[in-house]
Amino acid sequence: xxxxxxxxxxxxxxxxxxxxxxxxxxxxxxxxxxxxxxxxxxxxxxxxxxxxxxxxxxxxxxxxxxxxxxxxxxxxxxxxxxxxxxxxxxxxxxxxxxxxxxxxxxxxxxxxxxxxxxxxxxxxxxxxxxxxxxxxxxxxxxxxxxxxxxxxxxxxxxxxxxxxxxxxxxxxxxxxxxxxxxxxxxxxxxxxxxxxxxxxxxxxxxxxxxxxxxxxxxxxxxxxxxxxxxxxxxxxxxxxxxxxxxxxxxxxxxxxxxxxxxxxxxxxxxxxxxxxxxxxxxxxxxxxxxxxxxxxxxxxxxxxxxxxxxxxxxxxxxxxxxxxxxxxxxxxxxxxxxxxxxxxxxxxxxxxxxxxxxxxxxxxxxxxxxxxxxxxxxxxxxxxxxxxxxxxxxxx
Length: 396
Ligand code: CTP
Description:
Shape: elongated
Distance between the termini: 21 Å
Bound molecules: cytidine-5'-triphosphate
Helix content: 25-40%
CATH architecture of the largest domain: 3-Layer(aba) Sandwich
Number of domains: 2
Strand order of the largest sheet: 13-12-9-14-17-18-20-21
Structural class: alpha/beta
């Protein structure tokens, strides 16, 4: 694949050589155009050595003229265009068709069908500035693909959204299948927290890693992703609409708001089955509770069953089952009882399976299906799950 890579002036340009290297490792041929400011952060010589191609900086450099229209030839050569990092200034120029340097000139010469991928990186105030928001909206309406910046610590010392994602993630995004574009998916993840009093709650050990990996993979494949998560310590995957909730009731209500538009719903959350019948005001004191204390619990609404009952034609519903005994029979019973199309079975007593870890061992259970998978990373599980769902729904 021929990738035209643009680099703008941003401290995160120090990642640009690694991005080029990851692209080349994955089989790409890379040509680089740098804005003059980009050269203050990373030298053209580094990019020339890594890409094994000349680097263009000046639009009128006589070495690259190709009879005066190099920008047209380079734009035609490209099968993919990646600008990483993309500064706020370059976003603004691209949104308004300003071609005042080599990069913006080449990008204004792109054929309509050539994908333009932008990785904005800047300080949080610049990222959230109304002008940047407007420019992003214009570019998205024009068909540009945006990998939003990550949240975290920035070179300025501030914290917030603005970090350029890691080089491998950017390279994977460039090569990702866009097989879910136009689709909306609703995913739930993590545990729920059911309050006992003002300071205590009932919960479980779910880390949310599986659901977040499923959401990130769907986003990379071009879906609009709504991720409803209970309390977890994971950052929102870039480009995913994350709704954070606490209780099973809040998760149910949020799913009820979003389910109608979803083509695929995946319920990987470990929802509490019971919640305290009454939440005590303030803090319960043990002196008042005596030697033995019994707490009344009531059943939570089963979200998956509700979604199964309200499933519209064409909607694909996936449940999760964490089982210890009679795993397959229990998963099959859930498939039927909750009107799912597929159940992802985790056996909690197997190594590399279940809550917390980075790996999972899954068996897919469908009406006429039993498909055991070997232990895989949660990201690989997410990829295989989407491959399966795309096959089952005829998306690919
Ligand atoms: N689930 C849900 N709402 C609940 C409880 C569970 O949506 N109140 C969903 C989970 O997200 C998961 C599936 O149901 O996709 C399986 O949950 P589980 O608690 O294992 O199923 P149960 O039918 O409650 O069976 P049991 O607790 O007896 O294993």
